[in-house]
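The protein record quoted in full:
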Amino acid sequence: MPAAPGGPRLLLRRLREAMAEPVSPQARLDRIVTLIAANVIAEVCSVYVLSDDNTLELFATEGLNRSAVHLTRMRADEGLVGLIAKTAEPLSLSDAQSHPAFSYRPETGEEAYHAFLGVPLLRAGNTLGVLVVQNLTYRVYSEEEIEALQTTAMVLSEMIASGELQSLAPGAGSAARRAVSQRGVALADGIGLGHVVLHEPRIIVKQLIAENLEREVERLEEAIGEVRSAIDDLVERGDSIGTGESREVLETVRMFAHDKGWLRRMREAVHSGLTAEAAVERVQSDNRARMMRQSDPYLRDRLHDLDDLANRLLRTLIGAESNGAHRELPENAILVARSMGPAALLEYDRASLRGVVLEEGGPTSHIAIVARALGIPAVGEIANATALCDAGDAIIVDGATGEIQVRPGPEIEAAYAEQVRLRARRQERYRALRDLPAVTKDGVAIGLQLNAGLLVDLTHLNESGAEGVGLFRTELQFMVAQRMPSAAEQQSLYEAVFTATGDLPVTIRTLDIGGDKILPYMPALEEENPALGWRAIRIGLDRPALLRVQLRALLRAASGRPLKIMFPMVATVDEFVRAKAIVDREKAHLRRHGHVLPSDCRLGVMVEVPSLLFQIDEIAKVADFLSVGSNDLMQFLFAVDRENRRVADRFDTLSVPALRAFRLIAQRAAAADCPVTICGEIGGKPLEAMALIGLGFRNLSMSPAAIGPVKAMVLGLDASAVAAVLDAEMKRAGDGASLRPVLTAFAKAHGVPI
């Protein structure tokens, strides 16, 4: 049977009138199901809402027994309605009772009805409920009728998401506002309680129903043309799309922009009576729902490309600029983003920032390193994070366990508030250790220093009791700037660093860019393997002017005080010798022009490329000091991309192969009387730091928050005892097994706090 004259457009107009009526939410919903049933000429129309306890509840019906409303409840995977909620796909049946998923509910009186059409109520790809129509006859619903019901479902979804129906079923909230607990990967320790701020705020479509259909069609076509043209221009110019994506990703977005199926669905949605914005939103919500349920990780990853394209189209339709970072934040802000670079994070007002939640980003990513430096709790790899919550939602970030709690109940909130108080008391105990020397129980002195990259990091020197800065990353200054910092600007920063550190030693690493650290003002370089490509010292040696400007700024800034310069990504002794020659030339230049040179200038190497393990004796003879970059060293040693979640956990830094590599460096550096420091992330973890001390390392550099826990471990440790355990276990374990369980048991047995 065909839809009634006027079809979905007439229905949408009547729905708009019903939404504006000054009646109770239940009366409005009852009126809506009556209008839908009349429009599609169905004997039954019912709305089921997914509650926060993951059950589907009948909220309104036309045709079934009204007494069943708020009485009929079923599991989210039960019956035909549950099947639609689970798959997020429409279901059309000419004889519902013959379907194996049919579930008979005697209180509804639906046994008389045969034809069945149900569509999910979706918002941002999340299922909020199900809309169903039924007929007495055995009939087949047309594609137009399915489309019309999906369009109507969008209006109902917004009604549910607004919270208007919350009062209709006391004791159970809508799934749109339910509490969500999800576990990802811990990026930066700490607990943050606050409210959601979206890094790229979703565009809220306020006008759903079209006033002038022809004009909406024109607007959609114009916007599609503009977006296509803009993407074509970006591809032609070779630009990235703003967050470091490669040309390949941009080409994928362009492919979607020309996809006929995507365009057809949006045009059909407009013709059904939606505004152009609502049509884009509806089609993208359907795409999200379908792709979120895919098992193929490649298809799930393409969801981000479609999201980007839909957001571009929405911004074009409403005339909004691309959303960037906001420097000012409301109090107790928790930043939620798909992905974010360290420069974007640094643009925010850190005084109000209480945490960061990312869909992407691993524990050794640069955003994680910056978050740790700033002392901001952060969690990554939270699937669909940006669609789980709305701006302003209450949220808790647990940077220790990698969990987030969205819209938590009062009991959860109280439990985390107590954890925050306990952590504060623990930090007080660590502060009490600040002035104690870090010496083991058997008298071994351990140097504890800070990793830093910003002036704000250096404020932690005094409060942490650190003995200096073991690693100052200079690239952050370049990454947050809109243009290449001049020699004078670089010199000014380094002078401020020396002023802040006073008499404490500071090791400054030369520019480490390339790979995943792209400067916004430098042309993107397409490489098959950026991590193994043109980066760090390789750029400095190939473009010596860049390195010379930085070295000259460092030498002038030091002016009469000691200076330690470290070169990253050195793969051969020759590379270090060439870099050292550039330093000598710059010193000679400054000397000729009457500048005061550093009182002492020491040049070191970051050991992070495995080839140096086989030149360790040679490099230890020519370098003044070594620093082990454990993050990259482990990545290259195990051929594991630390940002690839499929393989990032396939090795353990406390496995025998890793420990042998670390021991080799410590032993050969000691034999050459060459000071060596660990400045990778493992130095800031008490258990791993305990192992490093047992292997012979006596200097560790870490994030400010790690100083207290590591010092507490050092004070409770017998270094010779852990060295003996490691020596015995590394001889015994020939299969590359992890010694984490053994070391944990040792710490427990000897009362070492880890």
Q: What stands out?
A: The radius of gyration is 31 Å. Confidence is low (pLDDT under 50) at residues 1-5, 239-246.
